[in-house]
Automatic annotation (TrEMBL), chain A:
GO terms for biological process: chromosome segregation; DNA replication; double-strand break repair via break-induced replication. InterPro entries: GINS_A, GINS_bundle-like_dom_sf, GINS_Psf2, PSF2_N. Belongs to the GINS2/PSF2 family. Component of the GINS complex. It comes from the Eukaryota. This is DNA replication complex GINS protein PSF2. One of its GO terms (cellular component) is GINS complex. It is found in: Nucleus. Residues 12-71 form the DNA replication complex GINS protein PSF2 N-terminal domain.
From TrEMBL, chain B:
Residues 92-171 form the GINS subunit domain. Residues 26-35 have a biased composition (Basic and acidic residues). Residues 1-43 are annotated as: Disordered. PANTHER family: DNA REPLICATION COMPLEX GINS PROTEIN SLD5 (PTHR21206:SF0), SLD5 PROTEIN (PTHR21206). This is DNA replication complex GINS protein SLD5. Residues 201-253 form the DNA replication complex GINS protein SLD5 C-terminal domain. CDD domains: GINS_A_Sld5, GINS_B_Sld5. One of its GO terms (biological process) is double-strand break repair via break-induced replication.
Automatic annotation (TrEMBL), chain C:
CDD domains: GINS_A_psf3, GINS_B_Psf3. It comes from Suillus discolor. SUPFAM superfamilies: GINS helical bundle-like, PriA/YqbF domain. GO terms for biological process: mitotic DNA replication initiation. Keywords: DNA replication, Nucleus. Residues 73-183 form the GINS subunit domain. This is DNA replication complex GINS protein PSF3. The keyword Iron-sulfur does not apply. The GINS complex plays an essential role in the initiation of DNA replication. It is found in: Nucleus.
């Protein structure tokens, strides 16, 4: 088959990680490299200890070889996430986060937790944030109809998690609801 | 730091923004910036790209659109051809550098990075094409009876649809249909009370859509209108946002 | 509940029978009514599968009564508490209560159809959250679990899911498991 069953109605977390890894992140290089043309753009030159912006996949690659430090984005910090969590638990709407925050946070924490201040605290904040937001997705399910559901500030990985049954449920409602012949 | 500021994410890497000092991480943040490379893409990190999409970003968007859309979308032949050329030239460069015995350690890292990216792009290209292939096989008969749809496909895709439709027709004929009365041997009946024998894309399927810009209002199944501002996310029927996606004003996520 | 010619689910769902009352005599078709008579006589009652009922109703050869899974008794029970009704008991294990209801709805007159539509929609919405909550609860337990706070009510609800809800349950459970694997994995070698 051209496409396995599991990929026909959804996207895997790893595919989303791949997409998120195109985004740029700041690094402090530990090697020098001339400016180089890549398919996604030209990056470099790398000249320690000057900071440079490169795609996350590239930073991951260098980091695993101990050839750079990754500078975590400002939102990947205890202060920021703590504030978002407070907001998330005190207000009904999803608070605003970078669209691919879950993927990016996971990649950086997986490969460069030594570059992240309070990595453990951040992990636990991310988990709390995730749970608070999951409760809101659940509320969204209650409001689901056959027409439209607005989900402002829902993020990429969160969409992916609820996608299979939200889409299926909307499909079922489309079948069951009779429109007063709105042609 | 005012987190209510809408521009907050676009200003993520203002130097020295945060309060705590002297940590290693803080020193990382404060390290001087090498401004030598004027062409360094200056997009704000982790936010919607404000500037022109690169061809690769375009392909990623079309790849995801294709994955989520119930319909088969127009083939992005030109974009694909450009990227394939780029893959080829990058691979050639790698070959050249590899055969050079004087390659330094620095060269080695460059080679690995260029190769890594080539593999990433190839993965996306393959997945994009496989997604289309899956739909072409699923809708082969629909494609072959619909010249308008054929125009959205590449030549080789239409050819594949034609051969696939013929193959399944022949298989059905030899295994079942030839034993039936002649009136029941067709594969494109539209009998009453039964769905059409030709499988068509179900445009009434729900999709998650993200507005890439402020969109003109679209009409929802319940009769109301949906006015999507840039960044808005909705779950709605594909048929509702089909045109927005086709024009690139919205994308499926 | 897809509308595809080759959908096995759709074909199976059309095997559901509805009680028809013939309005005309139909010669040589007695076997349809299940008896040993050669002909079907007018006013004979017989359960007829939906796929066959379409053409009979359309041609005005028969009338039908709304099947009991969508009758007043079920309607009232659903109104009282949608989650307490065992839909699977109404249509048999693996049966599609919503799919069957949709087919019945499509052959009814406007007013009656609206009534059925409302019942189906309210039941679906009233039960959906519990279906997903339980699916996610089970996904979180992992392979070792199984006990947990699965009360009798919860188990009874799960047993009462119709085929459509079972599919949703499986989708939500699989998705939650996939996310769990992703969050817990850290495969550096992969990168």
């Amino acid at each position: 088959m051209a496409l396995p069953q599991s990929l026909r109605t959804s996207v895997t977390p790893l595919e989303l990680e791949l997409i998120a890894s195109e985004q740029l992140v700041e690094i402090v290089p530990l090697i020098t490299m001339e400016k180089t043309a890549f398919i996604s753009g030209a990056y470099g030159p790398l000249r320690p200890p000057a900071k440079c912006r490169i795609p996350l996949w590239m930073a991951t690659n260098l980091k695993l070889k101990k050839k750079c430090h990754i500078v975590p984005p400002e939102w990947l910090s205890v202060d920021f996430l703590q504030e978002r969590l407070t907001r998330e638990t005190s207000r009904p709407e999803f608070s605003k986060l970078p669209f691919r925050f879950a993927e990016i946070a996971k990649v950086i924490l997986d490969v460069a937790s030594d570059d992240v201040q309070n990595a453990d605290k951040i992990k636990s904040l991310l988990k709390d944030l995730r749970e608070a937001r999951q409760a809101k997705s659940r509320d969204g399910l209650q409001k689901l109809d056959h027409s439209e559901l607005s989900l402002p500030n829902l993020c990429s990985m969160e969409i992916n998690e609820i996608r299979p049954f939200f889409i299926q449920s909307m499909g079922i409602l489309t079948q069951l609801v009779r429109e007063p012949s709105a042609e | 730091m005012d987190v209510d500021d809408d521009d907050f994410f676009t200003n993520l890497d203002r130097p020295g923004g945060a309060a705590n000092n002297n940590t290693f991480q803080e020193r990382l943040r404060r390290a001087s910036r090498d401004d030598d490379g004027a062409e360094i893409p200056d997009a704000p990190p982790f936010m919607f790209e404000e500037e022109e999409e690169t061809p690769l970003q375009q392909l990623i968007r079309h790849w995801m659109n294709e994955r989520h859309s119930p319909d088969i979308l127009p083939n992005e032949g030109e974009l694909l051809a450009g990227l394939l050329d780029h893959i080829r030239s990058q691979s050639e460069t790698v070959q050249l550098l590899r055969t050079d015995p004087s390659s330094s350690e620095e060269e080695h890292f460059r080679i690995v990075l260029v190769q890594t990216e080539v593999e990433r792009v190839k993965f996306i290209v393959r997945s994009y094409l496989r997604t289309r292939l899956f739909k072409i096989e699923k809708f082969a008969r629909y494609i072959m009876t619909n010249p308008q749809v054929q125009q959205q496909l590449s030549e080789s895709e239409v050819e594949h649809a034609r051969r696939f439709a013929r193959l399944t027709d022949q298989h059905f004929y030899h295994s079942v249909l030839q034993s039936l009365p002649e009136t029941q041997q067709t594969l494109d009946d539209q009998p009453p009370f039964v769905p059409s024998m030709v499988t068509e894309p179900d445009k009434g399927r729900a999709v998650f859509v993200l507005a890439r810009q402020d969109c003109p209002p679209v009409r929802l199944p319940d009769g109301t209108a949906l006015d999507m501002r840039k960044g808005h996310i909705s779950l709605t029927l594909y048929s509702v946002v089909e045109q927005l996606v086709a024009r690139g004003e919205a994308e499926l996520v | 509940m897809d509308n595809d010619y080759f959908s096995i689910d759709a074909i199976l769902a059309e095997n559901q029978k509805i009680q028809c009352t013939f309005k005309v005599d139909i010669p040589d078709m007695g076997h349809l009514a299940g008896g040993s008579d050669r002909d079907i006589k007018s006013l004979t009652k017989a359960p007829i599968p939906i796929w066959l009922a379409y053409i009979m109703l359309f041609s005005d050869w028969a009338d039908f009564t709304i099947p009991s899974p969508f009758g007043t008794r079920v309607r009232n029970a659903l109104k009282a508490e949608p989650r307490s009704v065992k839909l699977s008991n109404l249509v048999g294990a693996g049966g599609l209560w919503y799919g069957f209801g949709k087919m019945v709805m499509d052959i009814l007159s406007e007013e009656q159809a609206n009534g059925i539509s409302e019942m189906l929609t309210k039941a679906f919405k009233g039960r959906l959250l519990e279906v997903i909550d339980q699916a996610q609860h089970f996904a979180a337990l992992g392979p070792a679990g199984g006990g947990g706070p699965s009360t009798d009510t919860a188990q009874s609800f799960r047993e009462g899911l119709d085929g459509t809800e079972r599919e949703l349950f499986a989708l939500a459970q699989e998705s939650a498991k996939r996310m769990k694997r992703w969050h817990e994995g850290n495969d550096k070698a992969r990168r």
